[in-house]
Amino acid sequence: MWLHGVKSLDVIKTKIQILCRPRSGRHRIWEDTLNDDYLLSNPIYGAVATIRLSTIFWINALSAVIFLLCLDAVFMNPQPTVSSQSSESPIQESSHELASVDPALAVIEIQNLQKIYRTGFWMNQKLVTLKNCSLKVFAGETFGLLGPNGAGKTTLLKSLLGIIRPTSGQGKLLGKPLGDRSVKHHVGYLPENPYFYDFLTGWEFLEYTAGLFQLKKTVVRDRIPKLLELVGLAQSAAKKKQLRQYSKGMLQRVGMAQALINDPDVVFLDEPMSGLDPMGRYQMREIILSLKEQGKTIFFNSHILSDVELICDRIGVLAKGELICVGSIQELLGTADLYHVVVKGGQEDVLKQWVPDLEWRDNSWQGHLKGQPHDFMASLNLMDAHIISMNLARPTLEEFFVQQLRQRGIYASE
C-alpha cells in the first residue's frame, strides 16, 4: 500500500508539472489531460490518493499550528527558574528585581521616539504622530503631559505602555525596554475611554482585574473595599449594580480603582478628570495627591490646566507630535516674586539697571523688575520718579500654554 501511495503522489506531481509548463496550443492541453493512462484506468484509486494527500496536508498544518503555539509559550512567556530553596513566585522575584532599581535613575526614559502611520489605498501616505520625542521621568515624580487634541499625547502614552510599537527610537520603563512583560505587574493604567463588561458589577470587575495580576484572594478581599473608599464609590453600588447602569463619573471611579488594584509603582492616567463633576474632580485630584505622597510615579494627560498646575512637579507640552518644552512649573512660568512695574519719570539708564526689558509705552516706563522691590522703590525716590503700579507678573499655566502654541502657529486643534 505504501508503494501505491508513493506512485499516486508521483502521478499527481507529474500532472501538476504538465499543467504548469508552457503550451503551444489548445490541443497540447487536451492531450496532456487525457493521455494519463494511469489515472484514466484507475479513477477510484486516484480519488483515494487525493483524499490521502489532503489528509496529510491537514495533519501537517495542524502540527505546524501546535509547533507555533509551543514556540509562543516558550519564548513569549518565559518562566523564570525557581530553585527548590526558594518559595517565591516569579511575580515576587520580579518585584524584588525592580525594587532594587536606584531611585535616582529615570523610571521612564525615551530617546528620539518616533511613530509614523501609513495611510491611503497604497499605504504610501505618512502620518507622523510623534517626532523624535526625548523625555525622562524620575521615581516619585508627578509628570503632566499637555497638548491640544490630536497632538499625540495618547500615542506617546501607549508607546510607553507597549500597547503600540514606535517606528524608531528607544525607551525604558522601570529599567526595562518598552514592551517588556515583566514590568506590567508594576504598572497601573486608566485609558481615556475605558470599556468595561456591561453585565459585571463593579466588585466583580475588580475581582476579575485582580485575577489578571494573580493576586491572592485574601489580598483582594482586603484591597477592594479600601480602593472603593479611596475613589468614593459605595460598596452597595459596587456589589449590586451592573456596570451598564453606572454613570460616566462612576465608571471613571471604577477605572481608577482597577488601575490601582495591583498597587503599582507607576500609574498612567489618560484624562482622569474626564466626565467628572466638580466634586468628582476634587476627589480625583486628592487621589492623585495621595498617590504622590506614597512615592508613586504618576504620568498623566489632562486638559484641565489648573489641576495640572496644582498637582504636577514637572510638565511637558506636546504639539504636532513634538515635545516643545519640558520643565518644572517654576522653570517654565517663572518664580512668584517676578513683578511687572509701570513707572513715570526717572532716568532711563538707571531704570534699565533694575528693569532690563524696559520700554516706553503709554507715556510711562514698563517692564519686569529684577531685584528687591524695596530697594527699587528707594532708587525711584532718589530719581524723583513715581511708581504707578507693581503687580506679580507670573503667568498662569493656561496663558503659558496658549502662548507656546501661538508661537508655533497653532491656533486650533487638529
Key terms for this structure?
22% strand, 14 strands, alpha/beta, four-stranded antiparallel sheet, disordered N terminus, six-stranded mixed sheet, 45% helix, 16 helices
How is this structure best described in words?
This protein has 16 helices and 14 strands. With 414 residues, it is α/β, with parallel strands linked by helices. Strands 6-7-8-3-9-10 form a 6-stranded mixed sheet, with helices on both faces. Strands 2-1-4-5 form a 4-stranded antiparallel sheet, with helices on one face. Strands 12-13-11-14 form a 4-stranded antiparallel sheet, with helices on one face. A hairpin with a 2-residue loop joins strand 4 (168-173) and strand 5. Helix 8 packs across helix 10 (248-259). Residues 1-7, 22-36 and 74-97 have low confidence and may be disordered.
Supply Rg: 34 Å
The rough form would be described as elongated
Largest sheet: 6 strands, mixed
Averaged pLDDT: 80
Question: Which regions contain 5 or more consecutive residues with pLDDT less than 50?
Answer: 1-7, 22-36, 74-97
Total strand segments: 14
Specify the number of helices: 16
Specify the oligomeric state. Answer: single chain
How much of the sequence lies in strands comes to 15-25%
Across the major sheet, the strand order is 6-7-8-3-9-10
Please trace the helix and strand order, writing H or E for each element. Answer: HHHHHEEEHEEEHHHHEHEHEEHEHEEHEH
